[in-house]
Specification:
Elements: H1 3-11, E1 18-19, H2 22-28, E2 39-40, H3 49-55, E3 60-62, H4 70-73, E4 79-81, H5 95-109, H6 113-134, E5 142-147, E6 152-156, H7 161-168, E7 184-188, E8 199-203, H8 205-214, H9 218-221, H10 224-227, E9 231-234, H11 243-258
Parallel strand pairs: 1-2, 3-4, 5-8, 8-9
Antiparallel strand pairs: 5-6, 6-7
Helix pairs in contact: 5-6, 6-11
């Protein structure tokens, strides 16, 4: 019923027969890819319940934000809630640990514990490879951003999935300001001048295009990370997607920050 659930189910090798906005999923989430023949369930905010009913699923997995639909969905098939980004322990800001627990719980609920073990081997190997690449990183603090337009950006900091990865890799996050539940804040791009020594990591293809357009502004072009060519762009990563998103971000960020080419 949502991208996060689909992404994590696909990581477990589950038979996902439908997901919302399939084309955009392929552009924004990317991995794991939806298999051929997966039905498009319509908008994430307005899923096509008639189509869902006709597909006769064995189980519906959905984000808690869709819980208001549960009485209707339970008439179609049993449903469970899944949110890898939710933290059961507010004192522990490690989103990776929380996401791992949530994925194992999901695997248990759908009878895929063996697949969970196999996936964790792949995930752990991916993070180990990223850590090995990052040993050559120069140690600069990094702003992690997704541009919203040529003036504003989401900047990721405390309580974000990306921050949990940076902490594991001992990379300082340049943004130490307040953040939302998902670990981001909306700022004007010139606010990133607070750390003139920092590097910029831009996440998302649209963000890359917006950054290129923003460079036409004298104010943006004068920022140290632009002037000294310390801006790096990587492709899209779902910032609340749990372990599959974490592994993708670790891989792409480690290549981008070290200036090495991804295979």
């Amino acid at each position: 019923m949502d991208w996060t659930s689909a992404q994590n189910l696909l990581a477990l090798g589950a038979n996902v027969i439908t997901l919302p906005e399939r084309t955009r999923y392929g552009e924004r989430v990317v991995e794991p890819a939806a298999p051929p023949g997966t039905y498009d369930l319509g908008l994430r905010s307005e899923p096509n319940l008639e189509l869902l009913n006709s597909l006769a699923p064995d189980l519906i997995v959905m984000h808690p934000e869709l819980d208001m639909l549960r009485p209707v969905l339970d008439m179609i098939a049993p449903s469970i809630l899944f949110d890898p980004d939710a933290n059961d322990d507010p004192q522990n800001a490690n989103k990776l640990a929380s996401a791992r627990v949530k994925l194992e719980r999901l695997a248990d609920e759908i009878g895929k514990l063996d697949a969970f073990s196999s996936y964790m081997n792949v995930y752990d190997a991916g993070l180990s490879e990223a850590a090995a690449r990052l040993r050559s990183y120069d140690g600069r603090a990094v702003y992690i951003v997704t541009l919203l337009d040529t003036r504003r950006a989401l900047v990721f900091g405390r309580n974000s999935l990306f921050q949990s990865l940076f902490s594991q890799f001992s990379i300082e996050n340049a943004w130490d300001g307040p953040t939302s539940t998902y670990g981001h804040a909306t700022v004007t791009i010139d606010a990133l001048a607070r750390r003139p020594d920092a590097r910029l990591l831009s996440v998302g293809r649209e963000s890359r295009l917006l950054l290129q357009a923003a460079l036409r502004s004298p104010v943006i072009a004068s920022l140290p990370f632009v002037r000294e060519e310390r801006a790096v762009a990587i492709d899209d990563v779902l910032f609340y997607g749990g372990l599959p998103s974490a592994e993708r971000f670790a891989r792409m960020a480690s290549f981008g920050l070290t200036g090495t080419a991804a295979p």
